[in-house]
What we know:
Chain A is mostly helical. Chain A has helices at about 1-30, 40-55, 60-80, 90-115, 140-160, 165-175, 175-180, 185-210, 220-230, 235-255, 265-280; strands spanning about 130, 135-140.
Amino acid sequence: MSQFTQQVILGLLLGGVYVAVALGFSLVWGILNIVNLAHGALVIVGAYITWDLFTRLHIDPFLSLPVDALALFVIGYALQRGVINRVIRAPLLFTFLLTFGINLVIVSLLLLLFTADFRSVTPSYSGSGLQLGSITIPYIRLGGLLVALLLAGVLWAILNRTRVGAAILAVGADRDAAQLVGVDLRHIYALTFAIGAAFAGVAGGIISTFQSITPTAGDPYTLQAFAVVILGGLGRVSATVAGGLAFGLIEVLGQSTPGLGSGYANAIAFVVLVMVLIVRPRGLLGRLA
Amino acid sequence: MSLLAVRDVSKRFGGVNALAAVTFNVDQGDVLGIIGPNGAGKTTLLNCISGLYRPDTGDIEWEAETISGMAPYRIARLGIGRTFQIVRPFPSMTVRENTAMGALFGRPHGRLQPGAALAEADEVLDLVGLGEKRHYPVLRLTVPDRKRLEVARALAMRPRLLLLDEVMAGLNHVEVEQALEMVRRVRESGVTIVLIEHVMKVIVGICNRALVLNFGRTLVEGPPAEVLKDRRVIEAYLGERYARSQEPPSDAPPTVEGNQHHPRVGESNEE
Amino acid sequence: MTAAERRLPSRVRRSVVAIAAVALAFVILAPLTSIDAAQQAGLPLLTDKLWFRIATTVAMFVVLASGWNIIGGLTGYASFGNVAFFGLGAYTVGVLVQNLGWPFALALVAAPGVAAVFALIIGLPLLRLRGHYFAVATLGVGVAVGEVVNNVGALGASTGLFLPIVRSDLIFFYLMLGTAVLAVLTTWIILRTRFGYGLLAIRENEEAAAVIGVNTTFYKVAAFCVAAALTGLAGGIFAQWNSFINQENVFAITDNVQMILMAVIGGAGTVLGPVAGAIALELIIQTLAGGGSGAVYSQIGLGVLLAVCIIFIPRGVIDFFGGRSRLSLRYFRQTLRETSA
């Protein structure tokens, strides 16, 4: 029984990571209608920044998260305003291909800068965790979950309690109407993407603490982010949180099923994805499309 | 036996009853006008008949065969054609090709080849008045012409029943006259018509029967002239207070001002 | 200013067609100079191993791009999982030839069949989805199938599958070329028949297509199966040609994006667009890859190329040949204006 509880706990902790990864992805998709295939790459950039700060300057990974956020914010803003914006009204296929191309470029640049060697971030508290009876809660993972929930709260606050957030929601609801009331469309588009990228960067920082990173390590996260958004639903922060936690549970429980192993992560994501799309297209908590 | 029998059809979307227990028949040769305020469920009704929606309850029968729940393409091939309120042409094809598509896919019997379908299209285009523009790309057409194209494509299917969804919307007076003429020609060629309209001139001008929907329910059915005078219909369009204010007072003597002209539903003061 | 839109001057078009004809003749005939009989007759050797490798790869991508074009370009359902069919075709041949001892020819007949059956099974649920959802669901298929193959011992797991080596550049080149011709021919035939019109209607306006009598489910699935069969056939040939297959080389999502890019850059929805795109792009990629620091720079090059093409030539290069636009600054500016915020 406690074995099962341990799995559930691990599932929720993993879910926290997925929440962090999916928040930015969901924001960009919901407001800009862009499925960003370069999202995973942005996550990994954040991971590398954290690794670099940890290795060179011995900065604790959790303390480097704001740096990740800032750096990715700037990169994201420039990327959207300079490149992605040019095809934002083109058919969906084109933004897909474009973001894939961007992904290719970013991953290749990372390969040039950091080579394909696996890097890890191992702070002193890496191996230890909270002991509750026979259940272990690794500190790293717990930290990740807490940061993820914090991010969700921050996003919610930005969207629902600030003027900028109102502008973002307006643009997402009706681009033309938003312009008519004076919203600077291009700036808001770039800002939204930048926020999404910043969140991706923070997620990357979290990931670097428990996973060895290599330039291509971001790709699976893109597909998983997609699955999380489909599972949870589009349109609300709470939906992404629900989707992320649920997805983490499904993955952990799925992989502990006899016959399946950790190599099936993507396959599980895909099966979940397709089943949700067929059975309940709007996801757990999403708004009716 | 009626051509089309709609019995007790209901359709919900989330919490909204788009259609509730709608029942009526359409006989061969009818021109049935469906009217009602916005949101009354008129387009939903057409979508149910043409198969894009499946009714939650009730049946729709075509020549005594149940078609509710059938795939749209099968209903089309049975002889039911329709147009859309916001036109849906195929942008990469010319007017002629668009029209030919109806002949290519919608015939009840026999499969036409592309060549034969294009030839058929020419005939239909003349009927609707687009003959000279047959080689235009769709994007070059004006709005009234696009509506004609929509009708042409449906006609190329050689339907027995044609469902027209607000074909007159957005047309000026002259264009409405022309469109009315076109609909008359279609009727004369033997096609039974069901049309949704807001332009009452059309309902009065060409329909032999009218059906009023309000909040998804059938309100009144009958000859257009009577239906438009019906108090319930006036109430649905213009509100209860107005309807009441138009009724002659029960015991009062005739008013001093003499004949007052009370506008009926759909009339404006200019007409 | 519609009057200003003209075709490329017919002089230019004629010379392009002439050049293409000569190039095609060379491609078809030159390999014959490598057979013994030709050598003994004193003919100069016009082709070497590198030439064969590149030419066969180009032909392969013509098949892949054309196959994608049928479901993505003609029908409007942009599949990001077609590479799954490639991999399935490859593994069908791999398993039949290596594990079960079948003759290659027979296995090659089975490959498209397996791919098509898989397309039928996966297509029925997935083709109900649209746009983003269909794209990523198919992406998931590509990734998931590859992952499953990577984990199953009988299929070689992560080590991969080795096939008995068959040394014949010539045979594989002509096989792949023949498949490419088949693919282009198939597209051409489709576009002249009722089936093709139905697919176009589905692409342009699926609900309108349904109400005029197009059996949209059947047509979409059929298109998907045809695309799968062609793609699977290419995969089967690749398996024996390369003599080694694993998740990385036959289930690579980058290949899927490449085939889409080729079809789109060349001109999605046309017969020759994917051909032009495949040839142009693959030659560029091969050049970038051969140029020294190898894979990484070619990736960067591909990514940048992708971005530039998407931004500036969304309708495809064929636009300039097909009569819709002139190659001019005005064209690019107009495109940008249409697609930017």
